[in-house]
Amino acid sequence: MASAARVDPGLMEKVFAELAVSLAPVFHRRDLRQNALLYLRGLLMPQVEGNCRSLAETVGLARPCRLHHLVERAVRDEDAAGDAVRFFPARHLGADAGVLIFDETGQAKKARWRRPQAGSVPARWAGSGT
After folding, report:
1. DSSP strand E in the chain: where?
2. Residue 64 to residues 20, 27, 37, 44: CA-CA distances in angstroms?
3. What is the DSSP letter of 108?
4. N or C: which end of the chain has fewer CB within 10 A?
């Protein structure tokens, strides 16, 4: 029997508030920042599909149009978003020499060993999208 993860709500709110501050430069309008935080809250909820309609219902919106606008048409600073996403987890992992790898493909990865060929560089691990 699998056990559900337990999260301290106070700690979750504290970390979420820190994330909100990190993401503030991404959106120049207050309403877009609020919609982005609603979107993130929905994504962090357990057992919620990642579509705008499900997320809107989860966070208490009557219709998903605000989240659709956020995802499809809202003006945002892509570089600031990348910086926020990159630095936020690094601050909380606590490993100065660690490496954090984001895979945007959504495909399951299987590592497989490549044998070195004559005259090639040493063997290395390579990910596979299959």
Report:
1. 110-113, 125-128
2. 21, 19, 14, 17
3. -
4. N
**Is the entire prediction scored with pTM above 0.85?**
no
Tokens, residue 65: 């149009």
Give the separation between CA 58 and CA 60, rounded to whole angstroms. 6
The C-alpha atoms of residue 9 and residue 127 are separated, in whole angstroms, by: 36
> How long, in residues, is the chain?
130
Contact 68, 38 (CB under 8 A): no
pLDDT in tens, the chain (130 residues): 555 667 788 888 998 899 899 999 999 999 999 999 999 999 888 888 889 999 999 999 999 999 999 999 999 998 998 888 888 887 877 666 667 676 667 666 665 655 555 555 555 555 554 4
d(CA 102, CA 116): 27
